[in-house]
Amino acid sequence: MGDSPAERLLRSAEGVAYWAAAAPVLGRLPAALGYRIACWRGDWLSRRQPEKRTELARNLRLVLGDQLSPAAAQQATRDWFRLASCEAVDVARLRHGARPLRRLVEIHGREHLEAALAAGKGAILCSAHFGSYNSGFSAIHASGFPVTTIGRWQYKYTARLSSAERRFWDLAYARPVRRHRQRPNIEPWPGRFEVAALAASALRANEVVTISIDAPPLDSDRDRVVEVPFLGRRARLLPGAVTLAQITGAPVLMGFLYRSADYRHQVLEISAPVPMGGETATAFGRCAAEVGAAIQRSPAHWAYWASTADLANLGLIPPGRDRSPAADPLPIPDKRFLPDRTADHVVGSA
Amino acid sequence: METVINDYISRELVQDPALLPLADETSLLESGILDSLSLLRLVVFLEERFGIPVGDRDLLPANFASVNAICGYLRAREPGQLGAVHG
Q1: N- or C-end of chain B: fewer Cβ atoms within 10 A?
Q2: pTM
């Protein structure tokens, strides 16, 4: 499928229909059936968007190269679309105190989070735009940990979305997720200089603050990025999570939500605290290495394969391969269909 | 109080030597001295040094616009005490 206005409109309408009508129904079906139908929709999307599929496969090959066999790359591409569709079902299962989702999400490493909070300085849970990370954060909150997220709701910042579309994504996506947060998202953006202090306030209240540390930096953040080894290259990332930890004394843990082969069960793996010794870039490098390892373990879970502009911005592929985002007035590029896989961006400073 | 805060900002937060010596009325935001994380460092310092907790609602640009603005904010929080002790 190309990218004409009519095609974009059609794609957007399909996304709205799926999130507004189909996903809530799928979320009430027996899980095996609901997630199977979501996978069918993912396969259909994959067939309908050959350019996106090609872009995904090319980016996987460019970054992971020989680490991924052709067959594995093909499966990762197919799964990427399936996981995007399954995310909507996860959100639909956040009703009733998130019990329908919690039945399917096993949390490993709760003891690390409990031990971290026992010290009374809160905990920073670093993750990535990986799988249904937002629903995973909700599952943690629903299981008894007070969670606040540092992250932008991307529909608020993406160019070319109408106010009606923004309202829709707020209702269909943000609201169910937001219900399982201790505080409203702390949303970094140029000029909002209170972000880190608000996060520190949540940590002082002994809460869990989640951050996805793999977001491409905004133009205004350029002077704060560090270059760290990431996926076999050097990536430009914002080390704000580590700086926040160093200032507040809060421990940093890593958390990744993996979807199992049956697509309905998920495992949220929470690590022991990451050592924060050394320079900020060194400590942050340890966190980035954990993200890289999660992506290499399960490539289809990473949202950014579909965004050539973001991968170039991170420094993972050469610039100049991008086709569209340059036209955007905002530094966040237009996404293929909001909010699948790309609902928020998170950085550590603003 | 101005001297204490100016010294801290000059020593810990100013990255560009061209901004030194720092005038008390220099805009900390427009000059790029304060960003999200440096504000947090400053808040931690102010709380420890002056014993005044800075609430979320006080994290306004106006309260941290300059050394003078910070002092004005702190004096408003504790009228009569800070001026006598630190001023």
Answers
A1: C
A2: 0.88
